[in-house]
Design brief:
Layout (H helix, E strand, L loop, with lengths): L6 E4 L9 H16 L3 E4 L11 H14 L22 H13 L3 E4 L3 H13 L15 H9 L5 E4 L6 E6 L3 E6 L7 E3 L7 H11 L4 E5 L6 H11 L5 E5 L2 E2 L9 H9 L6 H6 L4 H9 L14 H7 L10 E2 L2 H14 L2 H14 L6 H4 L3 H4 L8 H6 L11 H4 L6 H17 L5 H14 L4 H13 L7 H8 L1 H15 L11
Parallel strand pairs: 1-2, 8-9, 10-11
Antiparallel strand pairs: 3-4, 4-7, 5-6
Helix pairs in contact: 10-12, 18-19, 18-22, 19-20, 19-21, 20-21
The protein binds one RNA strand of 76 nucleotides through helix 4, strand 6, strand 7, strand 11 and helix 12.
Amino acid sequence: MAIKNARVRFAPSPTGLTHLGSARTALYNYLIAQQSDGVFILRIEDTDQKRYDPQAEQDLIDSLRWLGVKWDEGPDVGGPHAPYHQSKRMEIYRKYAEELVAKGKAYYCFCTPQELEQVRKQQQANKQQPHYSGRCRDLPAEDAQQRVKAGESHVIRFKAPKSGSITVTDKLRGEITVENRSIDDRVLLKSDGHAVYHLAAMVDDHEMGITHVLRGEEWLPSLPLHAHIYEAFGWEQPIWVHLSVFLKPSGKGKMSKRDTEQMRLTGQSIFIKDLAAMGYLPEGVVNWIALMGWSYDDHTEFFPMQDLVEKFDLEKMNPSPAAIDFKKLDHFNGLHIRALSEKELAKRLVPYFETAGYAVDAKQLAPIIPIIQTRMTTLDEGPQLAGFFFQEEVEPSVDMLIGKGLTATASAAALRKALGILEVLPEFNAASAEEPMRAVADELGLKAGQLFGMLRNVVTGQEVSPPLFESMEIVGRETVIARLQRAIKALERPGEETPNRS
RNA sequence: GCCCCCAUCGUCUAGAGGCCCAGGACGUGGCCCUUUCAAGGCUAAAACCGGGGUUCGAAUCCCCGUGGGGGCACCA
């Protein structure tokens, strides 16, 4: 069932780095807007001035941009419902809060935080669900008005019904019914004049014409409250969709702050920013998180963004929590690396070579792409794999230069023989070098692998490398010869007569 | 303590009463390809939380239990 012209929003509270959970919520919203020819709004929920962090907001914008999740309206791009920072919409919330007071659906409360805290403690001690005492709930309107005018510090509280029950509908879970007496008289407007989430989000969603609210599961318990607020205003509710939470890789519980730090130490992270630095592709990350909680029924798992836009479907979402699996991210990242054009991959590799200390451009990278593309799971592996192409000199240990089951002298002799032939080869390329080298091995009674292994170490300086002859061609005859000569010299130094591991 | 949500291989999931002695993917083991490492191909092991119902028939519906998760702020 296709949605048309959805108006959706992602409304984070920038208090820390953007992580996978937020990214997925943003992604799903974006997909719905895209596929329905709708509008995706980015709204910043910064009504808690103590916790708001401008750096976190910048990180949010960078992370979303990097992922390719684009918004139509938002703080940086503007739009018909500006401003998009809730801290700049105070008067709007005040007006609506007063409206509820006038309707008898909310009331002024003069209880101090200390008083509330005390009551709460007592309730907890009595093993009761902490609820507002109701002390100001039935204050005569005149008196309350008077005290407000006199400048007495106050908040506005919602007057939740005390009897009966309410039934709300979540797209993934169906109808949820709760007793009204379990719903508290929550604060809507704080004494500092800022609205609380419960008011600000409802007002904005209504004013911005939001049709589908996709948000984290942690909001599910307050959904009945939100439904009551909508009812109090006489507004029509949006379609509510509560996304399951992400669990730790172990599947045991939500990621705690300590967990995330622990994870970063081991080279993994749930922060988008880190993932980018670690060499993951936005395509890989998007594909990965899209499939945590949603699936497509023909078993397809490879999804470029455009396909997600076409295929994503709220009906196929899964309400149960999902454990994060970084192995699967590696898999998707590899898939997307291989799906990149050679030109594009070269371009994306440049920064990783730069941070590894190689000053190369995409053009210099171009020839090596075909031989490294299937060998990478993350972009930062590029320099490890192919750095030797750009090094003046490689530094294999003497041990590495000795062929399997050979002595140093035998190894030196073999390399010398190979050198003699490579020097005079009429053409120096992968195709022309392989056969003669096989012949050399034959002649010396060596297995091809024995000789090739030595050559690999000599030319690349590493035991794991891209294919040998292709590498030699790219490195070039001159450098190959120089590296061979150096290796032979190292091998012929006295005292190296022990046979190598077999 | 109270409220809410969830429950299929180790993990992500397919499964909307017979198509399921449960399918795919990741990971793991084996084989093939191969100069290393990958990629690719083939293949194997691996799950319906438990108990009651309903029904001719239940992974699928209902109830209870258990387990897991989330929430109970002038935070979002």
